[in-house]
Amino acid sequence: MASPNYAARGYKDIKVYLDGAVAVVTLNRAKQRNTYVHSLVVEIVDVFDLLDRDDRVRVVVFTAEHTAPAYCSGADISSSWDTLFGKEEDKEGPHVLVCPAAHRDSGGIVTMAIFRCRKITIAAVNGHAVGIGVTGLQLPFDFRFVWAGAKLALPFVRRGIAAEATSGYLLPRLIGHAKATALLLTGGTFMPDSPYLQGLYHQVLPTREEVFPAALAFAKELAANTSQTAVAVTKALLWRGGDTIEAHHLIDSRAISELARARDGNEGTRAFMERRAANFQDTLGENMGNWMPWWSEIETKYRRAKL
Amino acid sequence: MASPNYAARGYKDIKVYLDGAVAVVTLNRAKQRNTYVHSLVVEIVDVFDLLDRDDRVRVVVFTAEHTAPAYCSGADISSSWDTLFGKEEDKEGPHVLVCPAAHRDSGGIVTMAIFRCRKITIAAVNGHAVGIGVTGLQLPFDFRFVWAGAKLALPFVRRGIAAEATSGYLLPRLIGHAKATALLLTGGTFMPDSPYLQGLYHQVLPTREEVFPAALAFAKELAANTSQTAVAVTKALLWRGGDTIEAHHLIDSRAISELARARDGNEGTRAFMERRAANFQDTLGENMGNWMPWWSEIETKYRRAKL
Amino acid sequence: MASPNYAARGYKDIKVYLDGAVAVVTLNRAKQRNTYVHSLVVEIVDVFDLLDRDDRVRVVVFTAEHTAPAYCSGADISSSWDTLFGKEEDKEGPHVLVCPAAHRDSGGIVTMAIFRCRKITIAAVNGHAVGIGVTGLQLPFDFRFVWAGAKLALPFVRRGIAAEATSGYLLPRLIGHAKATALLLTGGTFMPDSPYLQGLYHQVLPTREEVFPAALAFAKELAANTSQTAVAVTKALLWRGGDTIEAHHLIDSRAISELARARDGNEGTRAFMERRAANFQDTLGENMGNWMPWWSEIETKYRRAKL
What is the structure's pLDDT at C279? Predict the structure, then answer.
């Protein structure tokens, strides 16, 4: 993909810059306590779609200003939950079961935009987080770095709503149903050293200031030493693999076969034999075969009944 | 549902009472070491079906007398395993594969009755537990409180039988296959501080006396501050969600859409804005839309081949 | 099955002996740092197929010499990844999606041979391990014993390839996606006390010498006191159970029904009542009903397009 010009996108709720092969996305709503609003949803979806296809980018770090009141203080429900529902979709009303209604949870839309990004993604949680600030802005990332003093609130059942942003899908898979239930069904507020969060965070930092630099250093090391195509395929094998070991074997056999013979696979072997750092050059835009994706996806966009 | 009269059910193996919105079910077979017998199965299935539909109930605590010899000392196999098989179903014999035989594991029947209860469920394990006392009477609950001194035995493979009561389904999902295998394939006896149990218990209490009060206090706090409908939907999202993130997104979008606009969703927002405790009034019996359940269930009851 | 003569199989890359009902398989390539080569694949697949069907065997311990340079130092890629691809399959080329190509990852073939073994399997990891030495030669086992000083490297994304040997299937299920991602997407090297490995190892031993004896003692105790049929069914219930709790209930109901009335089930009850050790005699070859397996498996062997 031609290199997108992030500055020209006119983002207001986020700031974006590239530091070599690492993209940094920073929440830019400190004055509003980094609340989650519709305009932020639009910008996050836009930027993660670009980052996914920008061949220069190998790792994405998402963070907030460490001096902000919070990493993300949740949805702005200053009037009511209605602020999260579009007028347009309301006209359509609920439809059939399963794919039932015009409404699409914006938390899930954000979550899936991050989840589908084929680069390594890291959330640098350098402040308190509430609701969507814990679910959508943390769970779909590959890694989570967090401030030891962060208050992490999942108050859904105490607000009369359910676990949103596909957290009911991601959390049990990330850390198991026992801990996921403890987090979501109590509606509680947790600190990173909580046993119910055990395993969720990759690294816990003592101060807010240290979180982003630690995540960035981690990101740069990975950006320098990993293959973009190998990363994308490994992420997909973890989340889009087979339902049985046999089905998975057929998929990863193809993946290994393709990657091992590609330029990055050969470079990986040569570098290892020559005891030097590998110089990976394959990109998703230029060198990813059409065997990816191997899975089919349900279309989640709502189609209006009438033109 | 009209409020059931638990006293009128004539339970003998359990005692049941309501403490506000918290229902307490206590095993009443201390003289028989709280062994698991057919009459107990019938009463547990009956009471959890009622508790599921009793709109007064928000949380269920299941426990034993802390002075009993055990929380549950397993199935009474004083004669043989045959005590667990009905004469009637034996006549039918095994049938086709998958849904294969007249026999339905009573441990699974109990487990599913608890698992399907849409209220918050808590097991207060204030004594030793063996077999079904660990599987059926602990795994299907949302939370497990346990005495630090409890001996928890899973001896199936040392008794010539396999992991029963759907423990082969629940345990890997609750804490992962590595730990589930360690528990079920060794047939061992474990204490709550065992690394193989890590994550399974919500809280560990030093004495038997403390287990039930801790569970009850936890239950009352949740009963006072959570929405009955939000709890039921969150439980279902955790266990009956989509197979892919996209499928899950369609489901939880509908859930959020319905709940946020319902009375409890509005009350949750208002209470938050007014910095007061929420007063949730929606009930499963009166206010749950017909979009729940969104999943289909295999019928597990056995139908006789002949009338 | 007639008792196979392991000595007559002419293995060169492994050594095999029976110690009562425990089979010990030892890597025999210490001079080559226990690298993984095609001939080793062939022998491991052959021996695990035999061990699966050898009724004398109840537990399998897989290990290396503790004086070897490594437990397994990974694939021998001294020339290139091409050493892992057969000439024959290359002629066929890639085919349709999903079941797409002639190539079958040899790491997956080894993994599945171990995974399908219906006996208790234990990896005694008494040295460093790299790549397939961590995935294929550890993950499909029921239990992993490890030396505290072992360096465990999963460098795939740093070599330009993806997570192989069905590790993308096994690792998230064993310990959850959060830890599996940390292991596979960093391409890092980990020690057994790493939080990202938490739960994966059954026991950690301080010296290399202690790993195999600890695993062997564990194996002998299990071999003496568990039912071969109960073990096989429990393993299958953990990995081949139902997709929903209802589907699982139908399966384990049949399993309990069959096992409880079989000889081992009766012996388990009698021994318990008589407060003596059980003497289990049922074997997979003689006493396993045709209700096992209850699941269907995708055929993974490649069929040539032309004769």
Answer: 98
Write down the pTM of the prediction. 0.95
Superfamily of domain C6-224 in CATH is: 2-enoyl-CoA Hydratase; Chain A, domain 1 (3.90.226.10)
Q: pLDDT for C34-69, tens place per residue? A: 999 999 999 999 999 999 999 999 999 999 999 999
Asked whether the beta carbons of residue A300 and residue B264 sit closer than 8 angstroms, the reply is: no
- Other Cβ atoms within 10 Å of B163 Cβ, number: 31
CB contact under 8 A, C164 and A231: no
Contact B233 A186 (CB under 8 A): no
Mutate which of C185, C198, C240, C244 to disrupt the A interface (most A C-beta within 10 Å)?
A: C185
Angle at B139 between CA B136 and CA B145, to 5 degrees: 115
User: Residue B91: what pLDDT?
Assistant: 47
The Cα of C239 is separated from the nearest Cα of chain A by a number of Å equal to 9
- In degrees and rounded to multiples of 5, residue C250 shows phi and psi of -65, -40
Helix axis angle, C167-175 to C106-115, nearest 10°: 40
How far is residue A68's CA from residue A150's CA, in Å, rounded to a whole number? 12
C-alpha B155/C-alpha B129 separation (Å) is: 11
Length of chain C: 307
With an 8 Å Cβ cutoff, are B252 and A165 in contact?
Answer: yes
Give me the CATH code for the B227-287 domain, please.
1.10.12.10
With beta carbons under 8 A apart, name residues in chain C contacting B156.
Answer: 230, 234
Contact A227 C160 (CB under 8 A): yes
Cross-chain residue pair C257–B105, CB shorter than 8 Å: yes
How far B265 CA sits from the closest chain A CA (Å)? 4
A198, A230, A237 member nearest C168 (Cβ):
A237
CA distance A177 to B238: 8
Could you tell me which residues are beta bridge partners of residue A61?
A: A24, A122
Distance from CA of A205 to the nearest CA of B (A): 23
Per-residue confidence (pLDDT) for residue B97, from 0 to 100: 34
Instruction: Examine the pLDDT at A102 and tell me if it is beyond 80.
Output: no
| CATH code of domain A226-287 | 1.10.12.10
Average pLDDT of span B232-240? 98
The complex scores an ipTM of 0.94
The CA distance from C58 to the nearest CA of chain A, in Å, is: 23
Q: How many Å apart are CA C174 and CA C163, to the nearest integer? A: 15
- Domain-wise residue ranges, chain B: 6-224, 227-287
